[in-house]
Each structure stands twice: as C-alpha cells, then as structure tokens.
Specification:
The chain has 823 residues and is α+β, with helices and mostly antiparallel strands. The strands form five sheets. Strands 10-9-13-17-16 form a five-stranded antiparallel β-sheet, with no helix packed on it. The chain is globular and about 115 Å long.
Length: 823
C-alpha cells in the first residue's frame, strides 16, 4: 500500500509541476503574443502579399492578368471611365456603343462607386490591376477578422484570409472587375452580424452600410447572394421573432444606401434583353454538376494547367470554360480537412446553415424547376454557382475554427465549455475532428479516383453524366470531353501533391503537439497549394492582347471616321469585336453587355438580316459596312488582309439627326400627338413603327448646334408637321424640350422620335439621371439617421422594483407589517 500511495503522490506531484509549467508557458505566450492591432496589421500584410500573387502582378509596366472577358468588357469600360474621369465627369453615356448606352445604369463600370473615381485616373490596365488588388486586400482582411471573431485563432484568421484572396472561387472570376469589387464587401457585411447572442445596433447599421456599398460596386448577383447569406446568418444566430425586425432594418438600409445604383439598373433591366426574363439555358447553364465537389480539393481537375496558366482547350467541364470559371471553388484539401474538423464546434452551426442554403441554390437550379423562371428575381439571376463565393468564404471560417481547436483537449471550440479531462466526452471530442477531417479528405480523393475509373471503364455512362449536366453537349461533344477528362485526371501532377498535402494535414490534426508548431505547419499546408495552383486560372499578356486600337483593321476604320458602322457575318474573336471599336472611338452599331437594350439589338438584327436591311441601315445613318471573306454591299473603300475584311461606303446613308414628314408613320396619317413631359420620367416608351425607306427618301438635315455624350442642341426647320429623329437610344433620363416645352419622345428604330409642328424649332436633349441624385440623397440621409440611432446613448433604463421594496429603501428598514402588499 505504501508503494502504491508513493506512486500516486509522485504522479500528483508530476501533474502539478506539468500544470505549473503549462501555466508559465501560457503566461509567457500571452505576454509575447501580438497585440490586436499587430494581429490586424499582420492580416493586412498577408492579404496584400496574397493579392499580388492572385493577380499575377508584374509591376506598373505589365504584363497584365488576362482572361476571356477582359478585352471584351472590362478593358473597354476602363477606357471609357479613364477618359471620363480625366475630363472631370462620370461615365454616364457612350454614343459609340450601339445607338448609345447608359453606362451608369448597367453598373459594370461602377460609375457611382467612389473608389473608382480615384482608380481610373490611372491608365486603364494599371487601374484594373489596382482595383483587383485593392479589393482582394479588403476581402482578405475582412475574412481574417471574421474568422478571428468566430474562432479566436490568429493562425485560423490567416487561413481564412488566404482562402478569401487565393481561393479558386474568386481567382477564376478576376476578369470581372465589378464582381471582385462586390465580393470584397461580403465578409464586411457578415462580420458585424457574427456576434452572439445577437448583433448590436451599431453592428446591424454597419452591415447595412456595407451591403449598400456593395450595391454601388455594380454586381447585383453578388449583392443578392450576400443579402441572402446575411439574412440566414441573422436567423441562425438568434432564431426569435425579433430577428424579422433586424432583417428588415438591415435590408432597408442597404437598399436605400445602394439605391443610386440599384434604381437605374432596375430601369435598364426593364428595357434590356432581360426584360422578358432569361431562357432556361441562360439561367441554368451554370448550375451545379455532380463533379463540382472535386473542384474544392483539386485545382486542375477539370483543365490542364501550367506556369503560363490554364489551357482552356483542355477543359472537360460539362458546359465549357465559362461555366468552369463561374463554378470555381478550389480551397485545397488542407482547408477541407480543417473545415471538416471545425464543423462539430458549437459556434460552427450558424455557418453550416448559411453554407447549406448557398449550396442548395445551384443544386436546385440543376433540376431546372419551373418556379425559378416564374419568380421575378430568380428569373434574372444567372449563374447560380456564384454562390460558391459564399461557400468558399465559409469554408475558410470553418477551417479557422478547426485550427483553433488544435491542442484544446476537451474544448469543442474557442470559448465552449470544456469536458472533464479523461471523460468519455473529452475523448470523443478529441477524436471527432480527426475522423471528420480524414473522412472529408478520403471522400474527395476516392471521388477523384472514382471519376477517373468511370471515365475509362464506362465511357457510355460517363458521357451520359456529362450530357445530363450540360445544356448543349451532343454525343460527339460528350466523347471529346470524356477523352479530355481522362487526360486531365490521369495526370499525376499536381493531383498527387494535393492528395499528399491533404494526408499531411489530417496527420497534423491527429497529432497537434506542440500546438503552435502544428498550427504553423497547417498554415503552410494551406498556403502552398493556393499560392502554387490558384493563379493558374488566369494568363498574363501584354497590352496588345487587351486593346485593338493599334491594329491595322481598327486604324483603317478610325481613318475612315464613319458616322456609324455595321459588320456582317463577323468572326467571333477578332480585332473589331464589340466594344473594342467603341473603345477606339469608332461608332459601332453592335455592342456587348449583359444588359443590352432590347430595342437596339432588334434594330441591329433588322439592319443585318431584315427584309429591308439596306433601307434600315441608311435610315440609321450607317455609312460604313464591313464584311468578312466576301465583298460588301456599297462602294469598296479598302480591303484589310488581317481579318480578310472588306470596308465599304453605304450609298445614300442619312446623317442624323434629321426631320421627316408625318407620313413616315403609316399607322397615323395625321401624325402622332405630342407627349408632354411629366414630373417623373416615363419608364417605358411608346413604340412607333416607321417606314425606313420613306424616311430615307424624305429626310431633311437638321443642324447640330452642340453635341456631347450628355447634351445635344439641334435646330430644325420643318416643312410641315413631322418628326425629328435622333440616332440615340431611347432612355428615360433623356429630358427633351422643343422650344422650351418638355416632351417625351416616341421610340422608333430604337432611337428618339420627337413630334414637331411646321416652322423653325430648337430641340434640346439633356441626360439628367434624377433618380440617381434622389437615390444618393436618400442614401446619405438614411446612413446618417441609422448611425445617429446606433450611436445614441439615451437615458439608462431603470430596473423595475416592487413598491414595497422601494418604500423599504426610502425608510431604511423592513416593509410595514400590515401593509397588505404581497412581496
């Protein structure tokens, strides 16, 4: 017995000394741990370094990050913005796109987003680079702070920061600058809401302001997904009836602050190709596929990549490379393992609910439900897989929680109640993260091998899966994609390296001692694949790959200086593709936008292939026609060998604006009545069918007194009742006056048709976006009122006390015996 008691005494002494040493070590760590300010600075530095890598930044002289839509959309928009802001104005309208286009309403330019007013003072390509880098830094810092609040782990915050900046969900979308700008606000909207037991008043206001700022960035899709994620998070954190008030307050403030951009975008949507909703293929092309989970753990599972970037010709993703860019979600197997280890923590539950809702969107869309096309918001919500942006951010937060659990023994998460040491609950809590992490990695690795085996051993079944997940693949295309899949999946690198990283992460989670060293190694395992593989989604190229202004084809057209041109049977990708000509100062009847004006698209089709195409072109003022590979109609001016283009003058083309008699409107022989302007703009036009041939035969030139992208002054002498036709797209914010009287133009040939009486008149048109001014004023007032409400202190509420207790305090003694009052 004495020997046993001695051993017990020695064990107790040893345990006490271990506890004392641990306490001293913890005390030293706390003394030398970085301050909160230093931790935040470290997150910023990590975000800056990761953003430079993600953007493949090579310096102010280039080369520059390149992907498919950059020369088609973002670079021309940057040119327009740079030209406008250097002339001390905003990019509101461009006459060279189609029959003119409201740049500010589409939102992709971000005309009302204040950071852009400084960024686009720089040359366009440098401005695009800095816009991406700056917003990635903002996103990474916000994600790190969010993870720090949820997990309490500085190493976990670093992991979340890296995932938010270098994750495939955002890196594959860097070509869409406005999406990157909107994404940057996502963690800052969620950060103030991730507070238990509920967000503070200031937190709700801050989230609403951040959501409004995100709306001004000009990407409604990301804005809507963020708002949905915020609403689900509010419900998950505090699921009581009062949460409805919080959601309404948050959403209302965000709507008001962002109304300067949201209102004109809604107006444009009602006049654009989306006004009748999108087709099923447009809506569901980028929905979830059975192969998407593999993209979480393996960067090049769907495409071959290298030092130069992805080889898009090797893509086997069911709907092609654009769908793959939308569905990118790479985080790496180390992050998957850590996130799986963190899901069992109590504080992970709200984030699991948000992630489940975000994953449900593309999965439900994959089944093409009928209600999706019928609901007003969903019927214009393209690319449901963009919800992977939120999913990837949540994966980073859960990975931070998992990393924060290392070495905590019986703790289920930072701040959760510990289990008694040595208890079954403590042992289960310690082993559960390892099982979850190992299971998650095993599922993805086995899934990778299973897909490869299926592609090799069951080509018919694999082809059927590809076709079921695609909107356009035929049997021949499915077989080509299967062969590409076998080539990509059978490549040992980098798949084996990534699998090894996953196994190493699980091993470190299983033996997290010493804790700080294990955490550092895990951060390294997270960072290395993201740094090595994510940037491959994009290429880098020099300026000539973005701008066609210096090519022989565009230079030839600039010398010809057409009033407006149209191309017939043009190639899909060439020097003069839509928006590139407008960026070079050549007025092109065609343009490219996600919100093309529907009437302009229809008149373009009539000018190309309509029964009266030549007359329509002359009436529109198209004086130059370009064809490819065949002679063009009209008088040949020059042939450009590069794209094998024939440039011709259109004989008899009018020079708008011009006057035409009332007889050009066959349905109204006596002419159309004047439409007086009201106090509010007319949101929908009155369409008028005109006789294009009669217009071309009877037009009289009108004298232009002044013309710019936002104003025009025209003097006209009318032989009788008739109309002035202006080759400028009908848009509600154009205020038109005839001799000082406000009128609303009709819409004819997509342009503005203004009734005038006989005699001399002055027609003045000014672009006045009144809803923008009103929206900005309302947003500023709403922000000020919300901040004042959140910061007010007010009198402290007195705690209720029974009357007998108050009397006892006043008398300094116990209550009266016969008071008759029950305590």
């Amino acid at each position: 017995m004495r020997g046993v008691s001695g051993r017990v005494e020695r064990a107790a002494t040893l345990a006490a000394s271990v506890r004392e040493a641990s306490a001293r070590s913890l005390s030293r760590w706390r003394r030398h741990a970085p301050s909160p300010r230093a931790a935040r600075l470290l997150l910023v530095l990590v975000a800056v370094a990761a953003a430079l890598v993600a953007d493949r930044f090579a310096g102010p002289g280039g080369p520059w990050l390149w992907n498919l839509d950059l020369p088609k959309i973002d670079y021309p928009l940057a040119v327009f913005f740079h030209h406008a802001i250097t002339h001390v104005r905003l990019p509101l309208w461009n006459d060279d796109l189609g029959l003119g286009f409201p740049l500010y309403a589409e939102g992709q330019a971000g005309a009302f987003y204040p950071p852009n007013w400084l960024l686009y003072l720089l040359p366009p390509l440098l401005a695009l680079d800095l816009a991406r880098i700056g917003h990635l830094v903002l996103a990474g810092t916000g994600a790190g702070l969010l993870a720090l609040r949820v997990s309490g782990s500085r190493a976990g915050a670093t992991v979340a920061c890296l995932v938010a900046v270098l994750g495939g969900a955002i890196v594959t979308k860097l070509e869409w600058t406005n999406l990157v700008a909107a994404y940057a606000w996502l963690p800052w909207v969620l950060l103030p809401l991730a507070r238990r037991p509920r967000p503070t008043r200031l937190g709700l206001v801050g989230a609403g302001l951040a959501w409004g700022a995100q709306a001004l960035a000009g990407h409604p899709n990301t804005w809507l997904l963020t708002g949905l994620a915020a609403a689900v998070l509010l419900v998950a954190v505090d699921p009581r009836p009062a949460v409805v008030r919080r959601i309404v307050g948050f959403a209302g403030l965000g709507l008001l602050v962002g109304s300067a951009q949201l209102v004109p975008t809604a107006m444009l949507t009602g006049l654009s190709v989306r006004s009748a909703g999108l087709s099923a293929d447009d809506l569901f092309t980028s929905a979830a596929t059975p192969f998407d989970p593999l993209g979480l753990g393996f960067a090049n599972v769907f495409v071959r990549g290298g030092a130069g970037g992805w080889d898009t010709a090797t893509t086997w993703y069911p709907d092609g490379v654009f769908a793959l860019l939308e569905a990118g979600a790479y985080v790496g197997l180390a992050v998957v393992a850590l996130a799986a280890a963190g899901v069992a923590a109590r504080r992970a539950r709200p984030w699991l609910l948000v992630g489940a809702v975000m994953l449900a969107l593309p999965v439900v869309a994959a089944f093409r439900p009928a209600f999706w096309e019928a609901l007003p918001v969903l019927d214009g919500l393209r690319s449901p897989v963009r919800s992977y942006l939120v999913v990837a951010l949540i994966a980073g937060v859960l990975a931070a929680v998992g990393l924060g659990r290392l070495g905590r023994g019986g703790l289920s998460a930072a701040g959760d109640r510990p289990a008694p040491p040595g208890s079954p609950r403590a042992r289960a809590t310690a082993s559960l993260p390892v099982l979850l992490a190992g299971g998650a990695v095993a599922v993805l690795v086995v899934g990778y091998g299973g897909v490869l085996v299926l592609a090799v051993a069951a080509p018919g079944l694999f082809g059927d899966l590809l076709r079921a997940a695609s909107s356009h693949l035929d049997p021949g295309g499915a077989e080509r994609s299967r062969q590409l899949a076998v080539a990509a999946l059978s490549s040992p690198l980098p798949a084996l390296v990534e699998a090894g990283v996953g196994v190493a992460a699980v091993a470190l989670i299983a033996r997290a001692r010493p804790r700080r060293l294990a955490a550092a190694l895990l951060v390294g395992l997270v960072a290395w694949p993201l740094l090595a593989f994510s940037p491959q989604a994009n290429l880098v190229r020099d300026e000539s790959s973005f701008s066609s202004a210096e090519t022989r084809f565009v230079e030839t057209l600039r010398i010809e200086a057409p009033h407006r041109l149209v191309t017939l049977d043009r190639p899909g990708w060439y020097e003069g593709m839509p928006d590139q000509l407008a960026a070079a100062g050549v007025a092109d009847l065609e343009m490219f936008s996600s919100l093309d004006l529907l009437a302009s698209d229809r008149v373009l089709a009539a000018a190309r292939d309509g029964a009266d195409a030549a007359a329509v072109r002359r009436a529109l003022g198209v004086d130059t026609v370009v064809t490819f590979g065949r002679p063009c109609p009209g008088q040949l001016v020059v042939r450009v060998s590069g794209p094998d283009a024939y440039v011709c003058h259109e004989q008899g083309a009018l020079v708008p604006p011009y006057w035409v008699p009332a007889s050009v409107v066959p349905a109204a022989p006596g002419g159309l009545p004047e439409q007086p302007a009201g106090p509010l703009p007319a949101l929908q036009p009155t369409d008028v069918s005109v006789d294009a041939a009669a217009m071309a035969a009877s037009a009289r030139h009108a004298r232009i007194v002044g013309w710019s992208d936002t104003t025009s002054t025209i003097d006209v002498t009318a032989d009788g009742p008739g109309y002035v036709w202006i080759d400028r797209a009908w848009w509600p914010d154009w205020e038109v006056t005839v001799d000082g009287r406000g009128v609303v133009p009709y819409r004819a040939l997509a342009g503005q048709l203004i009734p005038v009486a006989a005699g001399s008149h002055r027609v003045v048109a000014e672009l006045r976006p009144r809803e923008v001014v009103l929206g900005a004023a309302v947003g500023i007032l709403a922000a000020a009122a919300a901040l004042a409400w959140a910061l007010r202190t007010g009198p402290r509420r007195r705690r209720w006390r029974p009357a007998w207790l108050a009397r006892r305090d006043d008398a300094g003694g116990p209550p009266p015996e016969a008071s008759g009052e029950a305590p």
